Amino acid sequence: MDNPILQSLWDRKSTRVFLEKPITKEAQEIILGAAMQAPTAGNQMLYTILQISDQNLKERLAETCDHQPFIAKAPLVLVFLADFQRWYDAFVFAGCNPRLPAEGDLMLAVADACIAAQNSVVAAQSLGIGSCYIGDILEQVEIHRELLDLPDYVMPAAMVVYGYPTDQQQNRKKPERFAPAYTVQENRYHTFSASEHEKWFCERAEREKVFRSYCVDADLMSVAKPDAMVMHCLPAHRGEEITDEVFEAHAAEIFDEAENRLHAQKAVLAKLLK
Fold first, then answer.
1. pTM of the model
2. Which CATH number, 3.40.109.10, 2.60.120.430, 3.90.550.10, 3.40.50.1360, labels domain 4-171?
3. CATH of 192-272, one of 3.40.50.410, 3.40.190.10, 3.40.50.1370, 3.40.140.20
4. What are phi and psi of 133, to 5 degrees?
């Protein structure tokens, strides 16, 4: 993929084992700065970012978030708070009589916080820094509101841990996403039937089973001649029929073949339409 931003989005996967390597202050500032450049409702930035630097607090969060020790080992831990308290207080201090925040305000703040969190994840990925969202920050929301001293109109929307991935984490296969037809709908919501759900899950399982024995990976390439070329007409199911490592090593000839395929298809169409 020629577009580095798109490639970064496709490559990114959760990292749960980190190298014992600190994240520099400069890199932390870049990650935080990217978060704050995220789209936000009315430019209000309805969130606060808590940087958890207290090791004891990290270890406590590792326990309350489903006993996940890697949280405490992460060089950088950020909690993204949906925050309507700040604006409410600002209106009060300005002498206004603001209405109390309602559910819609909270949802807007949650959206702001999550968009900022994702910006930070993309920025970290561009720096070679892995990340992992921790959903348990929400599942144990009352515990964490008390632990983090959160006032009435503030709640955790997301927690992300960051660190440099080990080779194993970097090279492991990214879990397959569902096909667009299962997740993208048009105009109105469609509720899937039991048979439709079964169809999608069975198709994915069958595809994984079929590809498992035919994946072109480094082990397979090691028994080929040194100048062996890998050809593919695209699109390729990365991680299933070919690994990212092999694909990127032979991207030049793969894209050449894909382009030639298009020319051949156009020639066939031109012949048929005469």
1. 0.75
2. 3.40.109.10
3. 3.40.50.1370
4. -75, 140
Domain boundaries, the chain: 4-171, 192-272
- Give the residue carrying structure tokens 């929307």: 157
Q: Looking up tokens 């969130």, which residue turns up?
A: 47
Please say whether the beta carbons of 25 and 173 come within 8 A.
Answer: no
- The radius of gyration of the chain's CA atoms, rounded to the nearest angstrom, is 24
The answer for residues whose C-beta is within 8 angstroms of residue 229's C-beta and 6 or more apart is 250, 253
| Mean pLDDT for back-to-back runs of 10 residues, the chain (274 residues) | 87 93 97 97 96 97 93 97 95 94 94 98 96 93 95 96 92 82 92 89 76 80 89 80 84 85 84 82
Provide the Cα torsion 155, 135, 26, 75; round to 10°: 120
Coil, helix or strand for 250? coil
CB contact at 8 A, 104 and 78 = no
Residue 124 and residue 133 in contact, taking contact as beta carbons nearer than 8 Å: no
Cα dihedral value 235, 238, 240, 242, nearest 10: 90
Which residue type does 91 have?
F
Using the structure block, give the residue that is written with the tokens 């409702």.
41
